[in-house]
Amino acid sequence: QVQLQESGPGLVKPSQTLSLTCTVSGGSISSDGYYWSWIRQPGGKGLEWIGRIYTSGSTNYNPSLNSRVTISVDMSKNQFSLKLSSVTAADTAVYYCARADSSGWFAYFQHWGQGTLVTVSS
Amino acid sequence: EVVLTQSPGTLSLSPGERATLSCRASQSVSSSYLAWYQQKPGQAPRLLIYGASSRATGIPDRFSGSGSGTDFTLTISRLEPEDFAVYYCQQYGSSLYTFGQGTKLEIK
């Protein structure tokens, strides 16, 4: 059973770059047929999809964040990563990594990490 | 971008009652690309329903989904204590995902 685990700094200063990593276990990130996504949730609020990456390196980003987001994959470490630049307090949220499968036409997320809280504050 | 609007914002019911949650899309969504999730405090969302009406693995049959086009519904036939949580709908289209704002199902 695949498992995902987010990691990274819990505190980031305004204007800096938020960097998170999602480590995948129980399966290879290089296997074909999966999109790997980042999703966030500000405290007490709803879910916002940030972006995704395919094993080929192809990416799609939420237009509202597109200019600040970079998602990459490191197959040697079985990880994918998120970088969000020029952060403000509005970027404070729990960040989740998740997987969408080709068996479901990549339409939904069956596997999620537990989430990691990132606070933007000086 | 497809905007999903969920109603009601909060639903207060008692165990054993039937819950009906609505998700309305700003434009037509393929039924294949509509999903529902349950989220409890401090936990990641859990997939309940995909393809508008198919239950995910391990989801009890008291959960059912229906709808098409712009109107979708999640029904919980008889509420169990563990069903009180926040529920989100989500759609996929044009390589983008959007979520509704959620419905909080609380114990009356």
Describe this structure as you would to a colleague.
The complex is a heterodimer of chains A (122) and B (108). In chain A, the strands form two sheets. In chain A, strands 2, 4, 5, 6, 9, 10 and 11 form a seven-stranded mixed β-sheet that branches. In chain A, strands 1-3-8-7 form a four-stranded antiparallel β-sheet, with no helix packed on it. Chain A is mainly beta. Chain A is built from no helices and eleven strands. Chain A is 0% helix and 50% strand. Chain A starts with a strand and ends with a strand. The model of chain A has no long low-confidence stretch (mean pLDDT 95). With 108 residues, chain B is mostly beta strands. Chain B has no helices and ten strands. Chain B has strands at 4-7, 10-13, 19-29, 34-39, 46-50, 54-55, 63-76, 86-93, 96-99, 103-107. In chain B, the strands form two sheets. In chain B, strands 2, 4, 5, 6, 8, 9 and 10 form a seven-stranded mixed β-sheet that branches. In chain B, strands 1-3-7 form a three-stranded antiparallel β-sheet, with no helix packed on it. The A-B interface holds A 37, 45-49, 60, 62-63, 96, 100, 104-110, 112-115 and B 1, 32-33, 35, 37, 43-47, 50-51, 56, 88, 90, 92, 95-102.
Spell out the key features of this protein:
heterodimer, A: 122 residues, mainly beta, seven-stranded mixed beta sheet, four-stranded antiparallel beta sheet, 50% strand, globular, B: 108 residues, three-stranded antiparallel beta sheet
